[in-house]
Design a protein that fits this description.
The protein is of the alpha/beta class. 37% of the residues lie in helices and 13% in strands. The strands form two sheets. An eight-stranded mixed sheet has the order 3-2-1-4-5-6-7-8, sandwiched between helices. The chain has a five-stranded parallel sheet with strand order 10-9-11-12-13.
Protein backbone atom coordinates (compact mmCIF):
# COMPACT_ATOMS: atom_id res chain seq x y z
CA UNK A 1 0.00 0.00 0.00
CA UNK A 2 1.10 3.56 -0.64
CA UNK A 3 0.15 6.74 1.13
CA UNK A 4 -2.59 7.22 -1.49
CA UNK A 5 -4.80 4.79 0.44
CA UNK A 6 -7.97 6.46 1.74
CA UNK A 7 -9.00 6.17 5.38
CA UNK A 8 -12.57 6.78 6.53
CA UNK A 9 -13.45 8.02 9.98
CA UNK A 10 -17.06 7.99 11.13
CA UNK A 11 -18.19 10.57 13.71
CA UNK A 12 -16.43 13.87 14.17
CA UNK A 13 -16.65 14.12 17.92
CA UNK A 14 -13.49 14.35 20.05
CA UNK A 15 -12.22 10.85 19.32
CA UNK A 16 -12.87 10.85 15.58
CA UNK A 17 -11.54 14.31 14.92
CA UNK A 18 -8.32 13.63 16.83
CA UNK A 19 -7.52 10.38 15.05
CA UNK A 20 -8.49 11.70 11.62
CA UNK A 21 -6.08 14.57 12.05
CA UNK A 22 -3.31 12.31 13.36
CA UNK A 23 -3.71 9.97 10.35
CA UNK A 24 -3.63 12.96 8.01
CA UNK A 25 -0.43 14.16 9.67
CA UNK A 26 1.15 10.87 8.58
CA UNK A 27 0.26 11.62 4.97
CA UNK A 28 -2.99 9.66 4.56
CA UNK A 29 -6.12 10.96 2.83
CA UNK A 30 -9.13 11.05 5.14
CA UNK A 31 -12.85 10.99 4.53
CA UNK A 32 -14.24 12.46 7.74
CA UNK A 33 -17.93 11.59 7.97
CA UNK A 34 -20.58 12.79 10.38
CA UNK A 35 -24.37 12.62 10.08
CA UNK A 36 -24.77 16.23 11.20
CA UNK A 37 -24.73 18.73 8.29
CA UNK A 38 -24.35 21.56 10.82
CA UNK A 39 -21.25 19.98 12.37
CA UNK A 40 -19.69 19.28 8.97
CA UNK A 41 -20.41 22.83 7.83
CA UNK A 42 -18.72 24.13 10.98
CA UNK A 43 -15.67 21.91 10.42
CA UNK A 44 -15.39 23.00 6.81
CA UNK A 45 -15.17 26.58 8.08
CA UNK A 46 -12.45 25.61 10.54
CA UNK A 47 -14.62 25.78 13.66
CA UNK A 48 -13.87 22.72 15.80
CA UNK A 49 -16.45 21.21 18.18
CA UNK A 50 -13.85 20.38 20.84
CA UNK A 51 -11.18 22.29 22.73
CA UNK A 52 -7.82 20.55 22.68
CA UNK A 53 -4.35 22.14 22.81
CA UNK A 54 -2.65 22.28 19.35
CA UNK A 55 -5.61 20.65 17.57
CA UNK A 56 -6.70 23.77 15.67
CA UNK A 57 -3.21 24.24 14.23
CA UNK A 58 -2.93 20.56 13.29
CA UNK A 59 -6.27 20.60 11.47
CA UNK A 60 -5.28 23.72 9.53
CA UNK A 61 -1.93 22.19 8.62
CA UNK A 62 -3.60 19.06 7.19
CA UNK A 63 -6.77 20.55 5.72
CA UNK A 64 -5.82 19.39 2.20
CA UNK A 65 -5.91 15.76 3.39
CA UNK A 66 -9.14 16.09 5.43
CA UNK A 67 -12.44 15.86 3.54
CA UNK A 68 -15.33 16.65 5.89
CA UNK A 69 -18.65 15.29 4.64
CA UNK A 70 -22.13 14.21 5.71
CA UNK A 71 -22.54 12.20 2.49
CA UNK A 72 -22.24 8.52 3.47
CA UNK A 73 -21.58 7.51 -0.15
CA UNK A 74 -18.10 9.02 0.03
CA UNK A 75 -17.14 6.20 2.40
CA UNK A 76 -17.40 3.69 -0.48
CA UNK A 77 -13.96 4.72 -1.71
CA UNK A 78 -12.23 4.04 1.61
CA UNK A 79 -9.77 1.20 2.13
CA UNK A 80 -10.23 1.24 5.89
CA UNK A 81 -13.03 2.76 8.00
CA UNK A 82 -12.88 3.64 11.70
CA UNK A 83 -15.99 4.09 13.84
CA UNK A 84 -14.76 6.65 16.32
CA UNK A 85 -17.67 8.27 18.12
CA UNK A 86 -17.52 9.24 21.77
CA UNK A 87 -19.71 6.80 23.71
CA UNK A 88 -22.05 8.69 26.08
CA UNK A 89 -22.27 7.60 29.71
CA UNK A 90 -24.60 8.52 32.54
CA UNK A 91 -23.44 9.75 35.95
CA UNK A 92 -23.06 6.17 37.20
CA UNK A 93 -20.80 5.10 34.34
CA UNK A 94 -23.38 3.21 32.29
CA UNK A 95 -22.57 3.34 28.56
CA UNK A 96 -25.22 3.97 25.94
CA UNK A 97 -24.06 1.84 22.99
CA UNK A 98 -27.06 2.68 20.81
CA UNK A 99 -25.02 4.99 18.61
CA UNK A 100 -22.34 2.32 17.99
CA UNK A 101 -24.93 -0.20 16.81
CA UNK A 102 -26.47 2.43 14.57
CA UNK A 103 -23.19 3.56 13.04
CA UNK A 104 -22.14 -0.03 12.31
CA UNK A 105 -25.38 -0.55 10.40
CA UNK A 106 -24.88 2.78 8.64
CA UNK A 107 -21.40 1.80 7.45
CA UNK A 108 -22.11 -1.77 6.36
CA UNK A 109 -23.83 -0.90 3.04
CA UNK A 110 -20.96 1.35 1.93
CA UNK A 111 -18.05 -0.77 3.18
CA UNK A 112 -16.08 -1.85 0.09
CA UNK A 113 -15.48 -5.58 -0.38
CA UNK A 114 -11.75 -5.18 0.22
CA UNK A 115 -12.09 -2.72 3.11
CA UNK A 116 -11.88 -3.38 6.86
CA UNK A 117 -13.87 -1.90 9.72
CA UNK A 118 -12.18 -0.84 12.96
CA UNK A 119 -14.07 0.01 16.14
CA UNK A 120 -12.17 2.76 17.91
CA UNK A 121 -15.01 3.65 20.26
CA UNK A 122 -14.82 1.95 23.64
CA UNK A 123 -17.12 -1.05 23.93
CA UNK A 124 -17.51 -3.72 26.64
CA UNK A 125 -15.95 -7.19 26.35
CA UNK A 126 -17.87 -9.39 23.93
CA UNK A 127 -19.22 -6.54 21.80
CA UNK A 128 -16.96 -6.75 18.75
CA UNK A 129 -17.35 -10.48 18.14
CA UNK A 130 -21.13 -10.11 17.90
CA UNK A 131 -20.94 -7.71 14.95
CA UNK A 132 -22.23 -9.35 11.79
CA UNK A 133 -19.20 -8.86 9.50
CA UNK A 134 -16.50 -11.24 8.21
CA UNK A 135 -14.12 -11.45 11.12
CA UNK A 136 -11.00 -11.13 8.94
CA UNK A 137 -12.21 -7.59 8.11
CA UNK A 138 -13.32 -6.60 11.62
CA UNK A 139 -11.05 -5.14 14.32
CA UNK A 140 -11.20 -3.38 17.67
CA UNK A 141 -8.51 -0.82 18.49
CA UNK A 142 -7.95 0.45 22.01
CA UNK A 143 -7.90 4.23 22.32
CA UNK A 144 -6.03 5.77 25.22
CA UNK A 145 -6.52 9.47 24.65
CA UNK A 146 -6.27 11.85 27.57
CA UNK A 147 -8.29 15.06 27.58
CA UNK A 148 -5.86 17.96 27.39
CA UNK A 149 -3.08 15.76 25.96
CA UNK A 150 -5.03 14.14 23.16
CA UNK A 151 -2.94 15.49 20.26
CA UNK A 152 0.27 14.28 21.85
CA UNK A 153 -1.23 10.85 22.54
CA UNK A 154 -2.64 10.53 19.01
CA UNK A 155 0.60 11.54 17.29
CA UNK A 156 2.99 9.68 19.58
CA UNK A 157 1.20 6.58 20.89
CA UNK A 158 3.01 4.37 23.40
CA UNK A 159 1.66 1.30 21.61
CA UNK A 160 -1.31 0.10 19.62
CA UNK A 161 -3.55 -2.60 21.04
CA UNK A 162 -5.60 -4.31 18.33
CA UNK A 163 -8.36 -6.85 18.89
CA UNK A 164 -8.58 -9.50 16.16
CA UNK A 165 -10.39 -12.76 15.57
CA UNK A 166 -7.13 -14.71 15.09
CA UNK A 167 -3.98 -13.16 16.63
CA UNK A 168 -1.79 -15.49 14.53
CA UNK A 169 -2.83 -13.87 11.26
CA UNK A 170 -1.34 -10.70 9.80
CA UNK A 171 -3.31 -7.48 9.77
CA UNK A 172 -4.56 -6.33 6.34
CA UNK A 173 -1.83 -4.38 4.55
CA UNK A 174 -3.76 -1.10 4.62
CA UNK A 175 -4.32 -1.30 8.36
CA UNK A 176 -0.80 -2.53 9.13
CA UNK A 177 0.83 0.27 7.12
CA UNK A 178 -1.28 2.89 8.85
CA UNK A 179 -0.32 1.69 12.33
CA UNK A 180 3.33 1.11 11.42
CA UNK A 181 3.61 4.73 10.27
CA UNK A 182 3.46 5.74 13.94
CA UNK A 183 6.57 3.70 14.76
CA UNK A 184 5.36 2.10 17.98
CA UNK A 185 4.73 -1.49 19.17
CA UNK A 186 1.57 -3.16 17.80
CA UNK A 187 0.02 -5.70 20.16
CA UNK A 188 -2.45 -8.09 18.53
CA UNK A 189 -4.79 -10.07 20.73
CA UNK A 190 -8.26 -11.61 20.60
CA UNK A 191 -11.22 -9.23 20.62
CA UNK A 192 -12.15 -9.88 24.24
CA UNK A 193 -8.57 -9.33 25.46
CA UNK A 194 -8.30 -6.00 23.68
CA UNK A 195 -11.68 -4.86 24.98
CA UNK A 196 -10.63 -5.75 28.52
CA UNK A 197 -7.13 -4.27 28.04
CA UNK A 198 -8.59 -0.78 27.82
CA UNK A 199 -10.50 -1.31 31.04
CA UNK A 200 -7.42 -2.86 32.68
CA UNK A 201 -5.34 0.23 31.92
CA UNK A 202 -7.94 2.47 33.51
CA UNK A 203 -8.35 0.26 36.58
CA UNK A 204 -4.61 0.37 37.27
CA UNK A 205 -4.85 4.15 36.91
CA UNK A 206 -7.78 4.25 39.34
CA UNK A 207 -5.76 2.18 41.82
CA UNK A 208 -2.98 4.79 41.69
CA UNK A 209 -5.44 7.69 41.96
CA UNK A 210 -7.22 6.14 44.93
CA UNK A 211 -4.03 5.18 46.77
CA UNK A 212 -2.68 8.70 46.31
CA UNK A 213 -5.89 10.28 47.60
CA UNK A 214 -6.04 7.92 50.59
CA UNK A 215 -2.47 8.66 51.63
CA UNK A 216 -2.87 12.40 51.02
CA UNK A 217 -5.82 12.39 53.40
CA UNK A 218 -3.70 10.62 56.02
CA UNK A 219 -1.11 13.38 55.56
CA UNK A 220 -3.76 15.96 56.35
CA UNK A 221 -4.62 14.11 59.55
CA UNK A 222 -1.12 13.49 60.95
CA UNK A 223 0.79 16.58 59.80
CA UNK A 224 2.79 14.94 57.00
CA UNK A 225 3.12 16.66 53.61
CA UNK A 226 2.29 14.63 50.50
CA UNK A 227 4.40 16.97 48.36
CA UNK A 228 7.44 15.73 50.27
CA UNK A 229 6.51 12.06 49.89
CA UNK A 230 5.67 11.96 46.15
CA UNK A 231 9.27 12.56 44.94
CA UNK A 232 10.43 9.50 46.91
CA UNK A 233 7.83 7.35 45.18
CA UNK A 234 8.78 8.62 41.73
CA UNK A 235 12.35 7.43 42.34
CA UNK A 236 11.15 3.89 43.10
CA UNK A 237 11.48 1.87 39.87
CA UNK A 238 8.50 -0.27 40.87
CA UNK A 239 6.33 2.86 40.76
CA UNK A 240 8.22 5.26 38.53
CA UNK A 241 8.49 8.89 37.51
CA UNK A 242 5.26 8.82 35.48
CA UNK A 243 3.05 7.45 38.24
CA UNK A 244 -0.15 9.32 39.06
CA UNK A 245 0.82 10.83 42.40
CA UNK A 246 -1.11 14.09 42.46
CA UNK A 247 -3.99 14.18 44.97
CA UNK A 248 -7.36 15.09 43.50
CA UNK A 249 -11.09 15.30 44.14
CA UNK A 250 -11.98 11.76 43.13
CA UNK A 251 -12.62 10.39 39.67
CA UNK A 252 -14.36 12.44 36.98
CA UNK A 253 -14.73 12.73 33.22
CA UNK A 254 -16.90 9.65 32.66
CA UNK A 255 -14.38 7.23 31.14
CA UNK A 256 -12.94 5.80 34.35
CA UNK A 257 -16.40 5.64 35.94
CA UNK A 258 -17.64 3.64 32.93
CA UNK A 259 -14.86 1.07 33.29
CA UNK A 260 -15.42 0.64 37.02
CA UNK A 261 -19.12 0.11 36.38
CA UNK A 262 -18.38 -2.39 33.61
CA UNK A 263 -16.15 -4.51 35.87
CA UNK A 264 -18.75 -4.53 38.65
CA UNK A 265 -21.41 -5.69 36.17
CA UNK A 266 -19.11 -8.41 34.81
CA UNK A 267 -18.38 -9.52 38.36
CA UNK A 268 -22.07 -9.79 39.16
CA UNK A 269 -22.75 -11.69 35.94
CA UNK A 270 -19.91 -14.16 36.39
CA UNK A 271 -19.93 -14.34 40.21
CA UNK A 272 -16.47 -12.87 40.76
CA UNK A 273 -15.57 -10.58 43.66
CA UNK A 274 -15.25 -6.90 42.77
CA UNK A 275 -15.36 -5.42 46.28
CA UNK A 276 -12.07 -3.62 45.64
CA UNK A 277 -13.60 -1.79 42.69
CA UNK A 278 -16.64 -0.83 44.76
CA UNK A 279 -14.27 0.50 47.42
CA UNK A 280 -12.53 2.69 44.82
CA UNK A 281 -15.90 4.20 43.90
CA UNK A 282 -16.73 4.89 47.54
CA UNK A 283 -13.32 6.46 48.09
CA UNK A 284 -13.86 8.70 45.07
CA UNK A 285 -17.25 9.81 46.37
CA UNK A 286 -15.68 10.51 49.76
CA UNK A 287 -12.80 12.53 48.33
CA UNK A 288 -15.10 14.67 46.17
CA UNK A 289 -16.47 16.18 49.39
CA UNK A 290 -13.10 17.56 50.51
CA UNK A 291 -13.73 21.15 49.40
CA UNK A 292 -17.20 21.20 50.92
CA UNK A 293 -15.84 19.87 54.24
CA UNK A 294 -13.14 22.55 54.14
CA UNK A 295 -15.80 25.21 53.56
CA UNK A 296 -17.94 23.92 56.41
CA UNK A 297 -15.06 23.83 58.89
CA UNK A 298 -13.05 26.87 57.86
CA UNK A 299 -15.56 29.22 56.21
CA UNK A 300 -19.24 28.77 57.03
CA UNK A 301 -18.54 28.33 60.74
CA UNK A 302 -16.53 31.57 60.86
CA UNK A 303 -17.70 33.96 58.12
CA UNK A 304 -21.30 35.07 57.83
CA UNK A 305 -22.64 35.08 54.25
CA UNK A 306 -19.22 34.75 52.62
CA UNK A 307 -18.65 35.88 49.03
CA UNK A 308 -17.11 32.90 47.23
CA UNK A 309 -15.19 32.81 43.95
CA UNK A 310 -14.90 29.45 42.16
CA UNK A 311 -12.24 29.28 39.46
CA UNK A 312 -12.56 26.35 37.06
CA UNK A 313 -15.58 24.37 35.87
CA UNK A 314 -14.03 21.71 33.63
CA UNK A 315 -13.29 18.43 35.35
CA UNK A 316 -9.58 18.95 34.57
CA UNK A 317 -7.41 21.45 32.63
CA UNK A 318 -7.24 21.64 28.85
CA UNK A 319 -10.73 20.31 28.21
CA UNK A 320 -14.21 21.77 27.96
CA UNK A 321 -15.79 18.65 29.48
CA UNK A 322 -17.73 19.03 32.73
CA UNK A 323 -18.75 15.34 32.93
CA UNK A 324 -18.98 14.48 36.65
CA UNK A 325 -17.01 17.67 37.35
CA UNK A 326 -16.32 18.25 41.08
CA UNK A 327 -16.73 21.96 40.43
CA UNK A 328 -20.25 21.60 39.05
CA UNK A 329 -21.15 19.33 41.98
CA UNK A 330 -19.83 21.97 44.39
CA UNK A 331 -21.79 24.78 42.73
CA UNK A 332 -24.97 22.74 43.18
CA UNK A 333 -24.23 22.70 46.92
CA UNK A 334 -23.63 26.46 47.06
CA UNK A 335 -27.01 27.56 45.70
CA UNK A 336 -27.72 29.71 48.78
CA UNK A 337 -24.36 31.50 48.67
CA UNK A 338 -23.18 34.51 46.70
CA UNK A 339 -20.82 32.91 44.17
CA UNK A 340 -18.83 34.18 41.19
CA UNK A 341 -17.33 31.71 38.72
CA UNK A 342 -14.89 31.62 35.81
CA UNK A 343 -13.40 29.08 33.42
CA UNK A 344 -11.19 29.69 30.34
CA UNK A 345 -13.15 27.22 28.18
CA UNK A 346 -16.48 26.41 29.80
CA UNK A 347 -19.56 28.60 29.95
CA UNK A 348 -22.68 27.58 31.86
CA UNK A 349 -25.87 29.38 32.80
CA UNK A 350 -25.05 30.87 36.18
CA UNK A 351 -25.70 34.39 37.51
CA UNK A 352 -22.15 34.64 38.81
CA UNK A 353 -20.35 33.76 35.55
CA UNK A 354 -17.60 36.30 34.83
CA UNK A 355 -15.60 36.93 31.68
CA UNK A 356 -12.24 37.32 33.42
CA UNK A 357 -10.37 36.21 36.52
CA UNK A 358 -10.15 39.82 37.70
CA UNK A 359 -13.93 40.21 37.59
CA UNK A 360 -14.53 36.86 39.30
CA UNK A 361 -12.18 37.45 42.19
CA UNK A 362 -13.12 41.09 42.86
CA UNK A 363 -14.91 41.30 46.21
CA UNK A 364 -14.48 37.60 47.06
CA UNK A 365 -13.62 36.59 50.61
CA UNK A 366 -13.06 32.93 49.70
CA UNK A 367 -11.22 31.79 46.58
CA UNK A 368 -11.55 28.15 45.44
CA UNK A 369 -9.46 26.83 42.56
CA UNK A 370 -11.45 23.84 41.32
CA UNK A 371 -9.60 23.32 38.03
CA UNK A 372 -5.81 23.88 38.02
CA UNK A 373 -5.67 25.69 34.69
CA UNK A 374 -2.13 26.96 33.90
CA UNK A 375 -3.70 30.34 33.13
CA UNK A 376 -4.69 30.73 36.76
CA UNK A 377 -1.12 30.36 37.96
CA UNK A 378 -0.17 33.20 35.62
CA UNK A 379 -3.15 35.48 36.20
CA UNK A 380 -3.95 35.10 39.90
CA UNK A 381 -1.05 37.00 41.47
CA UNK A 382 -1.95 40.18 39.59
CA UNK A 383 -5.68 39.66 40.24
CA UNK A 384 -5.01 39.30 43.97
CA UNK A 385 -3.14 42.60 44.02
CA UNK A 386 -6.05 44.34 42.30
CA UNK A 387 -8.51 42.77 44.73
CA UNK A 388 -6.38 44.10 47.62
CA UNK A 389 -7.10 42.76 51.11
CA UNK A 390 -10.65 41.40 51.07
CA UNK A 391 -9.62 37.75 50.53
CA UNK A 392 -9.53 35.69 53.73
CA UNK A 393 -9.15 32.08 52.52
CA UNK A 394 -7.78 30.29 49.45
CA UNK A 395 -8.79 26.66 48.90
CA UNK A 396 -6.47 25.12 46.32
CA UNK A 397 -7.10 21.33 46.26
CA UNK A 398 -4.59 20.55 43.52
CA UNK A 399 -1.79 22.66 45.00
CA UNK A 400 -1.47 25.08 42.09
CA UNK A 401 0.13 27.61 44.44
CA UNK A 402 1.63 25.27 47.01
CA UNK A 403 5.20 26.13 45.95
CA UNK A 404 4.68 29.86 45.36
CA UNK A 405 5.25 32.72 47.74
CA UNK A 406 3.07 35.80 48.15
CA UNK A 407 2.49 38.58 50.63
CA UNK A 408 -1.29 38.40 51.03
CA UNK A 409 -2.65 37.72 54.47
CA UNK A 410 -5.07 34.83 53.94
CA UNK A 411 -5.26 31.23 55.00
CA UNK A 412 -4.34 28.54 52.46
CA UNK A 413 -5.62 24.96 52.23
CA UNK A 414 -4.50 22.22 49.83
CA UNK A 415 -4.89 18.45 49.53
CA UNK A 416 -2.25 16.41 51.33
CA UNK A 417 -1.46 19.06 53.97
CA UNK A 418 -2.92 19.46 57.45
CA UNK A 419 -5.33 22.33 58.04
CA UNK A 420 -3.58 24.93 60.16
CA UNK A 421 -5.72 27.71 61.54
CA UNK A 422 -2.71 29.95 62.02
CA UNK A 423 -1.22 29.43 58.56
CA UNK A 424 -1.30 32.29 56.09
CA UNK A 425 -0.17 32.43 52.52
CA UNK A 426 3.42 33.13 53.59
CA UNK A 427 4.29 29.45 53.15
CA UNK A 428 2.66 28.94 49.74
Amino acid sequence: MTKQAVIGCVSMTHLGLLHSTAFAEKGFQLVCFDESPALINSLQKGNLPVSEPKLDDLVKKNQARLTFTHDREQLRGCDLIFIACDVPTDNKGNSDLTIIYRLVELVKPVLANHASLVLLSQVPPGFTRKIDLPKERLFYQVETLIFGRAVERALYPERYIVGVNDPQKDLPATYADLLESFNCPILKMRYESAELAKISINLFLVASVTTTNTLAEICEAIGADWNEIAPALRLDKRIGQYAYLSPGLGIAGGNLERDLNTIIKLGERHHTNTDTVSAWIKNSEHRREWVLHCLQEQVFAKIENPVICVLGLAYKPNTHSIKNSPSIALLNRLCDCKVTIHDPEVEIEHPGLKASVDEAILGAEVLIIMTPWPEYKQLLPAALKKAKNQLKIMIDPYGLFVDNSCQENFRYYSLGKRYNKEDTCSHI
